[in-house]
Amino acid sequence: MTSIEIPCTAGTPATNPGTGGATAAPVASPAASTREPYLRLHWEDDRTDARGYLVVDTLVGGLATGGTRMRAGCTLREVEDLARGMTRKTAAFDLPVGGAKGGIDFDPKDSRAVDVLARFCEAMHPFLDRHWVTAEDLGVTQQLIDEVFARLGMRQSYHAAIERSADCAATTERIYRGLNAEVPGGLLGDVIGGYGVAQACLAAASVRDWDIERTTVAIQGVGTMGGGAAWYLHEAGMRVVALADAAGTLYDPAGLDVPALLATRDRYGEIDRAAVPARVQVLDRERILETDVDVLVPAAVSYAITAENCARITAPVIVEAANAATTADAELDLTARGIAVVPDFVANAGAVAWAWWLILGEVDERAETSFLRLGRAMTTKVSDLMTGWSPADGPLRWTADVSGVVRDVPPVVVP
Questions:
Q1: Domain assignment of residue 176, yes or no
Q2: Is residue 172 part of a domain?
Q3: Residue 40 in contact with residue 4, Cβ under 8 Å?
Q4: What is the per-residue pLDDT across 172-202, written as a single tens digit (0 to 9) for each?
Q5: Which of 120, 212, 272, 357 could make an S-S bridge to 363, C-beta 3.0–4.6 Å?
Q6: Do 321 and 279 belong to one domain?
Q7: Does residue 108 lie in a domain region?
Q8: Do 117 and 13 reside in the same domain of the chain?
Q9: What is the DSSP letter of 323?
Q10: What is the mean pLDDT of residues 397-405?
Q11: Beta 132-133 vs 64-65: how paired, if at all?
């Protein structure tokens, strides 16, 4: 069963992207709008207790983009925050689309989860067919959502954009090759977001004039985003001293063997404790936040850093790999203490930026082309944000948020 709400206060989608705050939401800039999302849709599964939500924050040229997540406890407010974040990401990287997000309140480890996802996507079919380009997110892999789309007779989760192509088959093949190109650390489509986060961390360290090999980092979450960031930071020479998954925190001040640990992950992003070397300390999961490091990367659930736990953080730089990783009051507290928080809609936007470059034919399956373009873009954005920044200026996201700027976006033309 579905229900739709299209607020009458939505404004002009292409020129009035929503910002604004909400309870437990990321910090909005002082000038942020409080307008409603363009569309909210509620779904209730008729075979389980699952509930789902689609929020289109902005529609640009008839399209909006944003992943679909699945986790027990997912709420409409959470999906709204994430959709608003997608509007900020597309604006930050000047992508010709609006922002949206899908969310399902259901345990992805439940044996019925795949069928729940399929029924959710079937209910969303009119939007997925014409307007909403979705992809992987927390609890949903790209491979899984593509399998569901194939089951429903759609080419791939980028279906709405592919259908605008003059040659749908060729566009689908280009996207498939790009997503599944093998690169160090996994498949290009799986690791590109984490690679972008790693580049954001490296850029922040460069602005602070830190020696990369002496710079330490702790990463909360070793799924697609956190695992990719850990891999490429380790490859770049930064010392990854702590990794946290659902089972706890692994800590070694001398540096962890990241590739070896990641190789033991199960499908839920948890490291096999039997493969952890004896020298590595196994700590409580929450200890990751108070690790004595230069860079902290929250790459797990939303709202991981709160007013209740942010006082334990000593890292001078936080790079948000998870969407909505820091609550509003926590970010203000951290900023007042001089801690720079590189916002999610910049740091983890590499995945969506690359996906649209791939859709538009601006990159292909060649990893070196994709890595070079994303590396340059991310380095420039983070360097520009952090250079000359002072806590008195307010959170970095205030400067980074350009979603309120009217953009002259031409219609998407997919080759």
A1: no
A2: no
A3: yes
A4: 999 999 999 999 889 999 999 999 999 999 9
A5: 357
A6: yes
A7: yes
A8: yes
A9: T
A10: 91
A11: parallel
The rounded distance, in Å, linking the Cα atoms of 66 and 82 is 8
Residue 135 lies in a domain: yes
Task: Please state, in angstroms and rounded to a whole number, the distance separating the CA atoms of residues 167 and 157.
Answer: 17
C-alpha–C-alpha distance, residues 126 and 108, integer Å: 24
Shared-domain flag, residues 130 and 216: no
Residue type, 14: A
Domain that holds residue 124: 2-164
CATH of the domain at 331: 3.40.50.720
Phi, psi of 182, deg, nearest 5? -80, 130
Looking at the structure of the chain, the number of domains it has is 2
| Residues in contact with 308: Cβ distance below 8 Å, sequence separation at least 6, in sequence order | none
Q: Which residues make beta-bridge pairs with 104? A: 52, 70
Buried b (16+ CB within 10 A) or exposed e, 177-207: ebbebebebbbbbbbbbbbbbbbbbbbbbbb
Q: Both tokens of residue 161?
A: 């954009």
Written as six digits, the tokens of 130 are 């014409």
Band of pLDDT at residue 269, cut at 50, 70 and 90: confident
Residue identified by tokens 């090999």 is: 213
In what helix (H) or strand (E) does residue 167 lie, and over which residues does it extend?
A: none
For 257-261, the CB contacts below 8 A with 24+ separation are 258/230, 258/231, 258/233, 258/234, 259/185, 259/231, 259/234, 261/222
Spatial separation of the C-alpha atoms in residues 199 and 77, rounded to whole Å? 30
State the Cα–Cα distance between residues 124 and 386, nearest whole angstrom.
40
- Are 152 and 256 members of one domain? no
Q: Would you list the DSSP string of 346-398?
A: HHTTHHHHHHHHHHTTSS-S-HHHHHHHHHHHHHHHHHHHHTT--GGG--HHH
109 catalytic? Reply is no
Indicate the pLDDT class of residue 155, thresholds 50, 70 and 90.
confident
d(Cα 364, Cα 355) in Å, to the nearest integer? Answer: 10
Give the number of C-alpha atoms closer than 13 A to the C-alpha of residue 246, restricted to the C-beta side: 11
Please check whether residues 242 and 330 belong to one and the same domain: yes
CA distance 300 to 84: 19
The two tokens of residue 310 are 């942010």
- The sheet carrying 340-342 orders its strands as 281-283, 248-251, 239-245, 216-220, 295-298, 317-319, 340-342
